[in-house]
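TICKET: design request
STATUS: open
ATTACHED STRUCTURE:
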């Protein structure tokens, strides 16, 4: 049993923390509906991974002789979970009221399932690009099973599809789950073409309005970000195109930052540790200038 002093302290703070006065906590909206569930979203991702790459992910029950059955069971479970979680997302975060949440979530879930063959096709091009760009990769199997870029890109492909289908919040959760696991931060709103690869990957950031063509390669630490924000009359940042466009066959080496709504022309190469804020024509090559050596004596500094 608690003492009266402890009981009173607990009751006081429970009362304070339960206060629904929105003026006290203006940035924590009162939530009255069921939010999407993280465990269910993780399961959705695992199901898609097992469907797109059968035998590589899942619970170990895969048998190639029963592949159609294996995929069928998981597609059915995936559809049910999608209907539930999309419904929760629409109830809690849709900008406009959805008149029939259940029907709308079923329609979106069906469109998602219908697009999975295309997701698989594009994911296979990513595997090919990662394998071709890394002499250390021995097999395609190794790339699928081990490489963080494939995990991050599949999360992104799932999230982007859901975003295009009009699902709120859930796409961002899915890419942030990959971000926390791999260190690769891809906003679901970015548009990324086929045969995309990220080597090593840690610290890569791809902003919401980026447009990336086919056969583009990034190395670790690359930022495709915005240079500045524009604001409306109330001081709120405007959500307008503010991230770079990388055309086909562009390579960006480690720790370079490409900022603002600029275009890097096709077949260009950006060297390491570059700060790029101006557009470049096709076939450009940008690299650092030579390092300057200085002898500092008697406590002198830069």
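STATUS: resolved
RESOLUTION: sequence designed for all positions
ATTACHED SEQUENCE:
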């Amino acid at each position: 049993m608690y003492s009266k002093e402890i009981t009173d302290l607990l009751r006081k703070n429970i009362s304070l923390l339960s206060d629904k006065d929105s003026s006290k906590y203006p940035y924590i909206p009162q939530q009255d509906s069921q939010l999407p569930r993280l465990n269910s979203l993780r399961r959705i991702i695992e199901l898609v991974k097992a469907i797109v790459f059968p035998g590589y992910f899942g619970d170990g029950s895969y048998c190639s002789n029963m592949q159609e059955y294996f995929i069928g069971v998981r597609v059915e479970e995936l559809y049910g979970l999608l209907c539930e979680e999309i419904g929760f997302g629409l109830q809690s975060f849709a900008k406009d009221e959805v008149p029939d949440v259940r029907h709308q979530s079923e329609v979106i879930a069906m469109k998602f399932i219908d697009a999975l063959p295309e997701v698989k096709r594009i994911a296979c091009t990513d595997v090919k690009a990662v394998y071709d760009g890394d002499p250390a990769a021995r097999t395609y199997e190794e790339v699928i099973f081990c490489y963080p870029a494939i995990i991050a890109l599949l999360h992104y492909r799932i999230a982007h599809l859901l975003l295009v289908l009009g699902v709120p919040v859930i796409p961002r959760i899915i890419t942030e789950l990959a971000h926390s696991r791999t260190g690769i931060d891809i906003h679901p709103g970015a548009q990324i073409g086929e045969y995309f690869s990220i080597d090593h990957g840690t610290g890569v950031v791809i902003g919401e309005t980026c447009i990336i063509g086919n056969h583009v390669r990034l190395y670790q630490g690359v930022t495709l970000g915005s240079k500045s924000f524009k604001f409306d009359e109330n001081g709120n940042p405007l959500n307008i195109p503010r991230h770079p466009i990388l055309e086909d066959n562009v390579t960006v080496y480690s720790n370079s930052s490409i900022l603002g709504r600029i275009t890097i022309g096709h077949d260009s190469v950006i060297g390491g540790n570059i700060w790029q804020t101006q557009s470049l024509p096709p076939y450009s090559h940008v690299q650092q200038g030579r390092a300057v050596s200085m002898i500092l004596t008697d406590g002198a500094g830069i």
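CLOSING REMARK: The helical segments are 4-17, 38-52, 67-93, 101-132, 140-146, 148-164, 170-182. The CA atoms of residues 96 and 220 lie 39 Å apart.
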